[in-house]
Task: structure prediction
Amino acid sequence: MSEKELQQIIEKAGTLMEALPYIRKYQGKTFIVKYGGSAMVDDSLKKGFAQDITMLKLVGINPIVVHGGGPQIGKTLEKMGIKTRFIEGHRYSDRDTLDVVEMVLVGKVNKEIVTLLSNEGGRSVGLSGKDGRMIEAEKMVITRPGADVNRPEIIDLGMVGKITKINIDILNTIDRDNFIPVIAPVGVGKDGETYNINADTVAGEIAAAMKAEKLVLLTDEKGIKNSNGDLVPALDERQVDELVKSGVITGGMLPKVRSCFTALKAGVGKTHIVDGRIRHSVLLEIFTDKGIGTEIVHSNG
Result:
């Protein structure tokens, strides 16, 4: 064995030793991981993600995966000749659009993720929020100032849902049987109607309901950047709120930080916004001293 080969082996051992205290600390804990963006379409990243989640389970951590599927939904809608319309970051969901959303998320994307995990040795179960009425919802209503200051404009989003309750019984049952839940962000109304719900929002609400140790959100950004465009490794809620008010945090990052706030306020220990374009990003964020994304924690005081 050459000196170079020996050094490489020693470095690998060092990596394992760096991970050891984190593995010990988080054994038996629940992590919620929101899977989306490039990590869902690049074959190498898909395999790496499945390996990460399987690894978490094997070392005694209980991962729950919540997934999106925006690009896949968009492609299917285009093929079917259904126009896509976004209102304040939400996909307008009329009946035709909702049928496609449910078909793609529950029938296609969800089962693909289950297969990916199975290929890496992970035992998983695919679910939607309608199973066991896990995600109960009602129609979301958005208002904004209208021409008449005393009468705000009400914006119709179709069947976009606002979560009213998370029922965790089915998740606890799956956990006891040592499976990994994979959840499509579709909710159910009081009369059985279906609602399309933002996946980041679902992840935050499930983290809150499960009293999870961590919430990890994968995105196509390095994390949260400051006004100079530099990645910020850690922020507390107060600092995030200031970046939102100053317009530094906008667009698709808004539901992610709101999801983090939901989780933190319910007692979740830490939340992470991580670049899913990096292979093994979940493990790198959780099991290394520095991490690779932005960690959002409780404000002091």
Summary: The chain has one domain: 25-297. The radius of gyration is 20 Å.
